[in-house]
Amino acid sequence: MSRFSNDRSCLGRRLEAVALLALLVSVRPASAEIVEVAPGVQMTKRTYSAPVNEPPFYGFIVKNSARQAADESFVKALIQAVGTREKAFDETTKRGWIAIGAGNAAEAAQRFNQAFLLAPEQSRVYHGFAAVAQVRFNDTDFADELFRIARKQPNPLKTLNADYGRLLLIAKRPREAQPVLEQAVKDTPDFGDAWTNLAWARLQNGDPAAACAAVDEAVKQRPSGSANADLSALRSSAQCK
Predict the structure, then answer these.
(1) CB 100 within 8 A of CB 124
(2) What is the DSSP-derived secondary structure letter of residue 56?
(3) Nearest to 156 by CA among 130, 182, 134, 136
(4) Residue 96: partners with Cβ closer than 8 Å, 6 or more residues away
(5) For residue 168, which of 187, 153, 158, 182 has the smallest C-alpha distance?
(6) pLDDT tens per residue across span 100-128
(7) Which helix (H) or strand (E) holds 34?
C-alpha cells in the first residue's frame, strides 16, 4: 500500500473520530434548571403538556402582576370562607387526596396547587405533588425528588414513608425501598399495604424469612384489595409456611 493511501486512511479515521465527538456533544443533555419554590426549597424545573393549573407548581410559570393578584384574592377568599389559613390548607389537601383516591389526578393537582399558595413550606404539598407526578405524568424521577423534599419539610403525613417506599419499589430500587418501608411500618403499624410492600422489598433483597414475617403482619392489618392479591404471590415466592 502506498504512503498516500496510509495517510488518507489515517486522515479518514481522524475525521470519523471528530464527527463522533461532535455527535456526542450535540446529544449531551442540557443542564437541568433548578428553581426555588419556597424559602430554602429548590428543585428541578419540570414542564408537561397540560392546562396550567394541573402540573405541579402551576408548571413553574412566571406569574405576572395580574395573576399574582388573582392568587392573593383566591387565598383571601378561601381563608375567609373557612376561618383560618391552617383550616383552608387542611381542607384543600384533604380534597386533593380524595381526588387521588378517586383516580382524578387532574383535580388532585389543582387542589395541591391551591395548597401550595396557602402554605408552600408544608410537607403535604410536596407529598401530594409526588403522587400527581407519578400518577398523572408517569414521571418517577420527579416524584422521587418531591418525596425526598417532602421528608424534609414540616408536618408530614404518617403515610409519607409508605408512599415513598412504594414508589421506590415501582422504580425497581428495592435496596433503597427497604429502609424507607421499615420506617413506614413504624410510622403506621396498622397500615397493611406498608407491610405488604415491605415484604416485597425484603424478598427482593434476599430475605424470604423476613418477607414472610411482614406478610403475617400485613394479614393482621386488613390490607387493600390489591395488596391482598400481592400476599398470595408473596407467600408463593417466599415459600411462606
Answers:
(1) no
(2) G
(3) 130
(4) 107, 108, 109, 111, 112, 115, 128
(5) 182
(6) 999 999 999 999 999 999 999 999 999 99
(7) strand 34-38
Q: What is the 3-state secondary structure (H, E, C) of 161-226?
A: HHHHHHHHHHCCCHHHHHHHHHHHHHHCCCCHHHHHHHHHHHHHCCCHHHHHHHHHHHHHCCCCHH
Residue carrying the nine cell digits 402551576 = 58
Cα-Cα end-to-end distance for the chain = 75
Could you say which DSSP state residue 51 is in?
-
Task: Count other C-beta atoms under 10 Å from residue 149's C-beta.
Answer: 20
> Residue 115 has which C-alpha cell?
395548597
Q: Which three cell numbers stand for residue 69?
A: 393578584
Residue numbers in the chain where pLDDT is lower than 70: 1-31
Q: What are the tens digits of pLDDT across the range 177-204?
A: 999 999 999 999 999 999 999 999 999 9
User: Taking the model in full, what pTM does it have?
Assistant: 0.86
